[in-house]
Specification:
This protein is an alpha/beta fold. The protein has nine helices and 20 strands. The strands form five sheets. A seven-stranded mixed β-sheet has the order 4-3-5-6-7-8-9, with helices on both faces. Strands 10, 11, 13, 14 and 15 form a five-stranded antiparallel β-sheet that branches.
């Protein structure tokens, strides 16, 4: 619909609307997955899912308040950004910033200077680009003193990247993980106790257990009812209020969760399972690696780890392999290293590993 037609239709509406009467278990919305592990799926949520997520995460963890101004790096078709920029601020009378331009470090720095947000909704890929743009002189170091915290989700935040962010900008990062199946974030770091490399602790309201190979099963009242039109995947994923996430974790004695990759990403190398995410987290610790992705590749009939690396300075394949060998078990080093100018991204800003295989 053209802008003029939309404005005309909007002007014809009554100035006040009567709210529909709903019960907490009435179906309210279909929240679609990002499609990073296959075709996007519509997770069907009742009225109470966004309400509880607002209470448990936005208020219970972030402490969102009326004077907050939220700036999102991802666009609002990504549920992670949409709820944090629109829904949660609406719940407390805060504000969110929406902009049409392509997201770049330069544009984010401009918006921070113009609007002085208090919460930056970020993803690891853009965090790396923001750091790189400042450290290599493409942008001046911005004044980010207005930010009280930065969130990170969408993909795991490596310890080395987290620490470089703190060294460069000094803004606390609360890494977390969520999903459309459970509406939003269910594990997150807390203000004042974030641990670099950890995904954090359970958000109040959720329970979790680790199944086979450390696969995370999460239980909470924000679980979707089903995948719309997909009974088979519904049965594999949902069991009442429990969701089989497909993510692999370890949990320490203090209740912090440590990401170990996706169950469907594991590759068997020399008879042993390897999580590509572990190799990626190691590689981003190299001072000349901007970003990377590791996938399983076929070589002489065998599956081997192949690393795609974006480097800021010339690197040799052997140097990259030796860097991993010195830090991980010998069988985990990438047998192939391909240097690329950039990595393919999904619309939500995640690295599109399917495009690399």
């Amino acid at each position: 619909m053209a802008d003029d037609a939309f404005r005309e239709r909007l002007a014809a509406q009554p100035p006040e609307l009567e709210a529909a009467r709903t019960a907490k278990d009435d179906i309210a919305l279909w929240k679609f997955t990002t499609g990073s592990t296959g075709q996007p799926k519509g997770a069907v949520h009742p009225v109470h899912s966004p309400v509880l997520s607002h209470e448990w995460y936005a208020r219970g963890v972030l402490g969102i308040r009326e004077d907050d101004v939220v700036l999102p790096v991802p666009k609002l078709f990504f549920g992670y950004a949409r709820d944090l920029t629109a829904l949660y601020p609406f719940g407390v009378g805060a504000a969110g910033i929406v902009f049409p331009e392509r997201t770049t470090p330069e544009r984010i720095f401009e918006l921070i200077a113009e609007h002085r947000p208090t919460i930056l909704v970020n993803v690891p890929t853009m965090m790396a680009q923001m750091i790189d743009s400042v450290r290599h002189g493409r942008c001046q170091t911005p004044d980010m003193s207005c930010l009280r915290l930065c969130t990170s989700a969408g993909e795991a935040l490596p310890r080395e990247l987290h620490e470089r962010w703190l060294d460069t900008f000094g803004v606390e990062v609360l890494d977390g993980i969520g999903s459309s199946e459970l509406y939003h974030i269910y594990i997150s770091n807390r203000p004042g106790r974030a641990r670099p490399g950890s995904t954090g602790e359970l958000v109040p309201g959720y329970e979790a257990e680790l199944g086979e190979n450390g696969e995370l099963l999460v239980t909470g009242d924000t679980a979707a009812l089903l995948y719309w039109g997909d009974e088979e995947k519904t049965e594999r994923t949902f069991s009442g209020d429990t969701v089989r996430t497909g993510d692999l974790f370890e949990r320490d004695d203090e209740g912090f969760f440590w990401y170990r990759g996706r169950a469907d990403d594991l590759i068997k190398v020399g008879g042993m399972w390897v999580a590509p995410a572990e190799i990626e987290h190691c590689l981003v610790g190299h001072p000349d690696v901007v970003e990377c992705a590791v996938v399983g590749a076929q070589r002489n009939g065998l599956t081997v780890p192949r690393a795609y690396v974006v480097a800021r300075a010339p690197l040799e394949e052997q140097a990259v392999q030796d860097f991993v060998r010195e830090r991980l078990s010998p069988h985990k080093y990438p047998r192939e290293v391909r240097f690329v100018d950039d990595l393919p991204k999904t619309p939500s800003g995640k690295i599109d590993r399917k495009a690399l295989t």
